[in-house]
Amino acid sequence: AEGKIRRKLYTRGFVASTHFEDMQGACAAFQDIVHIGREYAKSDATILISGETGTGKELFAQSIHAASLRKDKPFVAVNCAAIPEGLLESELFGYEEGAFTGARRQGKAGMFELAHTGTLFLDEIGDLPLTLQGRLLRVLQERELVRVGGTQVIPLDVRVLCATHQDLRQLVAEERFRADLFYRLNVLSLRLPPLRERLEDIVDLAVSHLREHLDEPPAESLLVSQLERPLLRHPRS
Fold it and tell me: Parallel, antiparallel, or unpaired for β 119-123 and 144-146?
């Protein structure tokens, strides 16, 4: 039955589509980060990925999952900043029938349950409300949860990867983020360098994006089209 559920998750797109082999960047700083990411993939510890917006945090999370022993299991991503606070708890931990007005008749599994045996990626973890940080901490510690409005304890086997563009240490100092949760998430850390620290890669990345978005025909097609054109002779020839 569990295998059937996993196959349904794959058809719903809970898979990692990016691998370390797809990463573009030849500069030493970026290659060092890729090497560290490959090493982290061998572990099952929680990872905190930090970096500015656009540095590829989710791509690294997908690559770590794809290189891990959980690669054939679900990869579930949640953006903590994109879901309203009132819905985030039920989205993460699920709910039982009748838990609140509008709840499904048979309840609903949360993202943690969907990621069982696989990887859960919590993006923008710095925006997680304080009211939910305590519950997330308990789930990470106990490796089990209780759905909203439920009483049954559900065991979990999930690797958690987190990402943020914020300074969590500063948020802890401002009492906007729990210190105990920060240390629970920051077992392994990975900082992705911004493009201004990868100057050697700018040209290659620019050319790659141009080729991707300009929709150019392959070089072979251009050659064939040139050969098929009628020869234009000079009027005096």
Answer: unpaired
